[in-house]
Amino acid sequence: MRMDNTASGSANFTGTTSLILLQYMRITLELSHRKRTATLPINNSHLISSLIYNIVDKSSSEYAEKLHEQGYRLLNKAFKLFTFSLLYPGNQHKWVMHENGTMSTAEPLLHVTVSSPKEEFIEHLVIGLLQEPFVWIGKERFRVETVRKLDRPELTDDMQFVMLSPLVCTTKREPEQYPQYLFPGDMEFERVVLENLCRKYQVLHGREFLCDSDRFSFAIDETYVERMHGKVQKLIALKEGRSDETMVKGTFAPFRLKAPKELIEVGYECGFGEKNSQGFGMVKVDNKLLSE
Sign (positive/negative) of CA torsion 150, 156, 157, 163? Predict the structure, then answer.
């Protein structure tokens, strides 16, 4: 397995993590397979989440269990404080979708990016990868070829982002039994996203952040929405086929966010919205839009 520093070339590490690596809170795993095609369920985010916990467990079973069962707590809420992207084939190839609920690719390399502001999480993740270079996603076996650390971009109070996994936002009203999903443009969407970021900030820094709605603006990219004929909502099955299967709705589209820089940093590192540790709310900076 190769540890690759995108800023200063690459270096090989065989038994210990690099202290430099732990300064980077976002890493991309490059996975390879030896089959003619790799086939996975279309709804695979729970498989990636399980993979991450299993890797962390190889470094510290105590930390992995505590993270999974308790997380980082704020009153009666628990936050895992990590997120990850969808699984992408290399060379900008796309998955071939099948009617049986699976997808396949002949591309030999796949990529998934993981992000967290918690050094201990990144440390255990990297050490776990060094313990075992082969991983399983569902029924497919992959070799971890490269762990690439990504430089943190310059973040300001006005950013354009591309979603790497859908953004989920809900609210629950009494006496309703189930939460109501919210989407950009809904009356309560901005308030719920803002309050979620403020809670994550408090968990991370141990102090409250003033949630000022006058300094918060979320605008979806309408040009993209038009190009997609309005089809920017995703319906995802978690733990598909199991008795505890859950259907989740999210938004998948570029957006512009105006907010205090501190909250934008939290969203970039932890994920925006809910269910981040299940593969939702991860973004990257949209450099193309920023340059226009």
Answer: negative
Q: Is there a single domain that holds both residue 190 and residue 127? A: no
Domain interval for residue 201: 158-290
pLDDT at 290 over 80: no
Q: What pLDDT sits at residue 287?
A: 75
CA dist., res. 258 & res. 217, Å (int): 5
Instruction: Output the pTM of the full model.
Output: 0.89
CATH number of the CATH domain containing 117? 3.30.70.1890
Q: What is the distance between the alpha carbons of residues 273 and 253, in angstroms, rounded to a whole number?
A: 14
C-alpha distance from residue 212 to each of 182, 257, 292 (Å): 20, 14, 29
Burial of 270 by CB count in 10 Å (0-12 exposed, 13-18 middle, 19+ buried)?
Answer: buried
Tell me, yes or no, whether 91 and 182 share the same domain: no
